[in-house]
Design a protein that fits this description.
Blueprint (H helix, E strand, L loop, with lengths): L12 H15 L4 E7 L5 H10 L5 E6 L10 H7 L11 H10 L10 H15 L5 E6 L6 H13 L5 E8 L12 E3 L5 H12 L5 H11 L3 H8 L4 H6 L13 H13 L4 H12 L5 H10 L7 H5 L3 E3 L3 E3 L2 H10 L2 H14 L6 H11 L5 H16 L3 H13 L4 H17 L3 H12 L5 H18 L5 H14 L4 H16 L8 H9 L9 H16 L1 H9 L2 H6 L5 H20 L4 H18 L5 H15 L2 H17 L7 H10 L2 H18 L2 H17 L3 H13 L6 H14 L3 H16 L4 H13 L3 H18 L2 H17 L3 H17 L3 H13 L3 E3 L11 H11 L4 H8 L3 H15 L7 H6 L5 E3 L3
Parallel strand pairs: 1-4, 1-5, 2-3, 3-4
Antiparallel strand pairs: 6-7, 8-9
Length: 932
């Protein structure tokens, strides 16, 4: 709304108190976020003006969403950040470059929108250093999509910055926007306050019945009360209004207010109405542009009647009294009038300085197919893509499709629009545009792209095995067209079957691998991708003896291949999950797991790919679970969950499940398993169901609930999946042996020996040796247990080293070698207690007591009271990283880093980062006391 001196806000004591409290917190240096929600005219904008008026001594920046500007990427964000762009050079390099590209200030690879979000967080944090910063965003429902997503990301990452953000969102249009943030719902004024406002507006007292009727009809909406009483005396309201001015009693209040605004336009001169229409169609509010467009239409600007009617304000910029005025002006005009205005605006817009808005106006001016307009929109879409505005790219390409006259380019543009909508997480719109593309002639390569898109859409809706055949069809078409995308698509088809959880059958991974090997597809241009496909296909078609060595050929290129562009890095990150699953479950190679997951984390951080960083962190967390460093694994899982929440993605539960199982946290694991199983069934992720068998096998074996462990592990063993079979076999052998089901144990052992023989890694040899020891007696069992401890140690699998000491100690005690048993059980107990793997530690403790040993409990240390993120920040600080470097690493601001460090210092009893290395190293130790 037009800014004006604020009267006392009638009936808004509760809302003003909430905003006053927000300002108190901000002045104390605390971060605050508040979303004001309500219908049009309910008073959200006035409340923003109120908080701005109360913000004396604070730095204030604003942005306003405008419906006509929604398709231009980063338009609203640029408006918000414009006052602070002189601070850009102070940001870390990747953040600075991302923001410069997003705002069209430099050329470069399309930035990840979440890296742009981190850059905005850093920029606003710097702006808050001299004075706390208040960010006000009005009509957030009309922000361009990428600006809204970026500001939502920033709002979710605020923690210790002197920054407050207040958004105003109109319902119902903005119901889906900014969900989950603190909100204040703005309702209508109560009867007394509404009556007071009405009488203050008409300048006299009203009869009670008249006032009550009018207030009831307006539902306490302040704008409606003000606008329908504007210029009318108490007497006029008492005796009724004529038909031309009556608001009526039908329809939403906002619609009736808009109709009232439209009614005021009728009495204005035609030249003024045209001027208002130009202003309504031009979202920036640039008065000079409006004058140029008016001149093009041979209209002499005469805004006085509109200003007198209280509809608009002219100055350096043009502002409507309320967005409903803009809507009434624009939608009340005839289509030809709107097209003429957009045509004039296109002619008046500088084609060099603002080519995207010029192209958009030209498109709105088109009254039929126009190749020149379509080409302009396609170029604007390409610029949007290069700036990271995928959603804007999709809309611009869609509009280009609509105005393309010829069938061939129309089909190509429809396909490009569909692909862009899919990338922008709009699958329904992508499906509709894919159907349009299918109606027009396409090249062979475009037909293959369309087939791949349809498969991806199907896979996104449900991880069923129906997507794999479509991907294979697309890969075959790419092969026929000689495209390097063929091998990548075959690998994608195999990946789809892995997540669907099927190896055999016509839609399983083996069928996909056979098709890939027989395709003769050309090289993808990436040695790593080509060798990975060869290795995975060999595993599935030729068996372990041939497949594992072929797979190992891909490790060095995967770990070292130079990635010269952001696109190449993104493609590598898409390959990583397939590679990791193969190296974990077939090569049994923890070092490869570490190498590839660490590179995935580093690459995702480097390019700010926060969509792929959480799964990379989950894989890396799994490595540290097996290293026995549960604290580091926990930190990675928490970071992954925090980033997923900030970016609007579902959290990844797998690593949290595995960690809960190794810790023996039955209650935690049960809730997570129930949730994950339900999700797996809903989405058709049969592969995750197989993982549940392994996870519950670990959990119940640790708790010595062997019958439950045996039943759970059997589901993992019997599952026809690419992954988790080998790990489930290990759990099943132990549980079945403990239950006396030796035939079952031997059958699983035979499969395990076959699976691990080709891997020939320390992890594989240790798993085979220990499982054989469980079914062997005498000296051979003793040798096998010792071999298992040695091989697991060679493979770096600390959790299995500790477990082998436990099983060996249990066996030795049964063999009456109490002193030697005590030695191994003590080692197992100390290792498990240090992780901590509570259930396995308790098993070791009970066994130690049975040998006559008294077990001392592990003492707590100050470091153990740190949260995962505090530990992560402290560890990086202890390694010598600055607050800015830590913030860039963890996607938080330097202020948040300092906030965490202050809490760390208090908990550890230190005063500076120089003391951190010793304080973090001073962990307490578990111990045992010999019985003597």
């Amino acid at each position: 709304m037009i800014a004006s001196p604020l009267p006392d806000l009638v009936g808004r004591q509760r809302e003003c108190a909430a905003l006053d409290d927000l300002l108190v917190g901000l002045r104390e240096g605390a971060s605050r976020v508040l979303v004001l929600r309500g219908e049009a005219g309910i008073g959200k904008s006035v409340l923003l003006e109120y908080v701005a008026a109360q913000a004396s001594g604070l730095n204030v920046t604003r942005a306003r969403g405008i419906e006509a500007d929604m398709e231009l990427p980063y338009a609203s964000l640029h408006q918000l950040c414009a006052p602070f762009l002189d601070e850009l050079e102070e940001l870390p390099g990747p953040q600075r470059d991302a923001l410069r590209v997003a705002f069209g200030m430099a050329a470069g690879d399309p930035p990840d929108r979440f890296l742009v979000g981190l850059a905005v967080l850093s920029l606003l944090t710097r702006a808050s250093e001299p004075r706390p910063l208040l960010v006000l965003v009005d009509d957030a429902q009309w922000l361009d999509q990428v600006s809204l997503q970026t500001l939502e990301f920033v709002a979710r990452r605020l923690l210790a910055e002197a920054v407050a953000m207040v958004f105003a969102v109109r319902d119902p249009e903005g119901q889906a926007a900014l969900g989950g943030l603190p909100e204040l719902r703005i309702g209508g004024l109560d009867s007394a306050a509404a009556g007071e406002l009405l009488e203050a507006t008409v300048g006299g007292r009203l009869e009670q019945r008249v006032r009550d009727r009018f207030v009831a009809e307006m539902h306490g909406n302040p704008l409606a009360l003000l606008e329908f009483s504007r210029g009318r005396s108490a007497a006029e309201l008492a005796y009724g209004m004529d038909a031309s001015s009556s608001p009526g009693v039908q329809g939403p209040v906002a619609s009736r207010v808009e109709q009232d605004f439209a009614g005021r336009l009728v009495s204005l001169p035609e030249v003024t109405r045209t001027l208002l229409l130009i202003a309504a169609a031009e979202p920036v509010g640039d008065a000079r542009l409006l004058v140029r467009a008016a001149a093009s239409l041979k209209v002499t600007p005469d805004a006085a009647p509109a200003k007198a009617a209280g509809l608009i304000e002219f100055g350096e910029s043009v502002r409507f009294r309320h967005p409903l005025v803009r809507s009434a002006v624009y939608h009340g005009a005839e289509p030809e009038e709107r097209r003429a205005v957009h045509r004039a605006l296109a002619e008046a817009t500088d084609p060099v300085l603002d080519p995207d808005r010029r192209a958009w106006h030209a498109a709105q001016a088109a009254d039929g197919p126009d190749e020149e307009v379509a080409a302009g929109l396609e170029q604007a879409a390409d610029r949007a893509r290069r700036r990271g505005g995928i959603a804007a790219e999709a809309v611009l390409l869609e509009r280009a499709t609509e105005v393309t006259p010829d069938p061939w380019p129309r089909g190509r543009r429809a396909l490009a629009a569909a692909e862009a909508h899919f990338s922008a997480a709009a699958p329904d719109r992508a499906s509709e545009l894919a159907a349009v593309a299918e109606m027009y002639p396409l090249t062979a390569l475009d037909r293959a792209r369309l087939a791949r898109l349809r498969a991806r859409l199907l896979f996104a809706r449900s991880r069923s095995d129906e997507a794999a055949p479509l991907l294979l069809e697309a890969a075959a078409q790419f092969t026929a067209a000689g495209s390097p995308l063929a091998r990548e698509t075959y690998l994608e088809a195999i990946s789809a079957t892995i997540f669907a959880g099927r190896v055999h059958g016509p839609t399983g991974a083996r069928a996909a691998a056979i098709a890939a090997r027989g395709s003769g597809a050309p090289s993808s241009g990436s040695l790593a991708a080509d060798l990975l496909l060869d290795g995975v296909a060999a595993l599935l078609t030729d068996g372990y003896e041939t497949g594992v060595p072929a797979l190992r050929d891909a490790l060095e290129p995967l770990a070292r291949e130079e990635l010269g562009t952001r696109e190449a890095t993104v493609r590598w990150l898409l390959l990583a999950p397939v590679a990791l699953e193969a190296f974990i479950h077939y090569a049994w190679d923890l070092h490869a797991w570490d190498t590839l997951s660490s590179r995935a984390v580093r690459l995702a951080r480097d390019i700010g790919a926060l969509g792929t960083l959480p799964p990379a962190l989950i894989y890396a967390g799994g490595v540290h679970i097996h290293y026995g460093d549960f604290a580091k694994a926990d930190r990675m899982i928490e970071e992954a969950d925090a980033i997923a929440a900030a970016t609007g993605h579902a959290p990844h539960k797998y690593a949290a499940l595995v960690l809960a199982a190794w810790r023996g946290e039955a209650d935690v694991a049960a809730a997570l398993i129930e949730e994950a199983t339900k999700r797996a069934v809903q989405r058709g992720e049969a592969g995750l169901l197989g993982a549940m068998g392994y996870i519950q096998g670990v959990l119940f074996n640790g708790l010595a609930r062997y019958e439950e462990a045996m039943a759970a592990a059997r589901t993992g063993v019997e599952h026809d999946g690419f992954n988790f079979t080998g790990l489930s076999l290990v759990e099943h052998v132990e549980a079945a042996t403990r239950c006396g089901e030796l035939d079952q144990a031997r059958a699983s052992l035979a499969r395990l020996v076959e699976l691990t023989r080709a891997a020939d890694s320390g992890w594989a040899r240790g798993a085979s040796a220990r499982s054989q020891a469980l079914l062997t007696d005498g000296d051979e069992a003793d040798r096998l247990y010792r071999t298992a401890i040695e091989e697991f140690g060679r493979g770096g699998v600390a959790v299995e080293v500790a477990r082998s000491h436990l099983l060996y100690g249990e066996w030795l005690r049964r063999e009456r070698h109490r002193a030697l048993a005590r030695e191994h059980l003590r080692t197992a107990h100390e290792m498990f207690a240090a992780m901590p793997a509570h259930a396995f530690a308790e098993r070791a403790r009970r066994e130690l007591i049975a040998t006559g040993e008294h077990v001392r409990t592990r003492s707590a240390t100050p470091a153990s009271t740190l949260t995962p993120q505090e530990t992560q920040v402290a560890t990086l600080a202890a390694e010598g990283m600055t607050n800015a470097q830590i913030g860039a690493e963890l996607f938080i601001s330097p202020h948040t880093v300092e906030w965490h460090l202050r809490k760390v210092y208090a908990k550890l009893g230190i005063t500076s980062r120089r003391s951190l290395p010793d304080a973090l190293a001073g962990a307490g130790s578990a111990g045992t006391v010999n019985a003597g």
